[in-house]
Structure formats: structure tokens, C-alpha cells
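Quick check before the chapter quiz. The format below is the same one you will see on the exam, so make sure you can read both the input and the output lines.
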Amino acid sequence: NVGNPNQLITDGIDGFIASNEDEWFSKLVLLIENENIRNKIGLNGQKKILDNYNKGICFNELKTNFLDKL
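Here is the expected output.
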């Protein structure tokens, strides 16, 4: 379990959130048909991961929230 997607993804910026099959279909079609949006979403998602979820940041979060409290 990776958590709530709404906390990880900003809809339309670094990914897409859909609440039903029709929304997923529409968003997938948008990505398939629009290379610029596809590239923008991909680059934004990559940047978010590198800025917020790299090993150093994750270790510091683990240390601060768990290890320092032992």
C-alpha cells in the first residue's frame, strides 16, 4: 500500500486522478493523443519524485519520525 494517491499526485500536473472508468478513459486518450501533455506530466512527476522521495530525504524522514524516538 503506497498511501492515498490524492496525497501523492496533483491531478493534471504530475499525474491524473480519476474516480470512474470514463474519467480514466478520457485521461488516457488525452495522454495518448497529446505528446506535449504526456511529456509535461512525465517531467513534472519525475521532478516531484526526485525532489521529495529520494533516498536522503526518505532516510531523514525515517530517522526523524522513528529512529530518533527509540
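If your answer matched, good. Residues 35-52 form the longest helix (18 residues).
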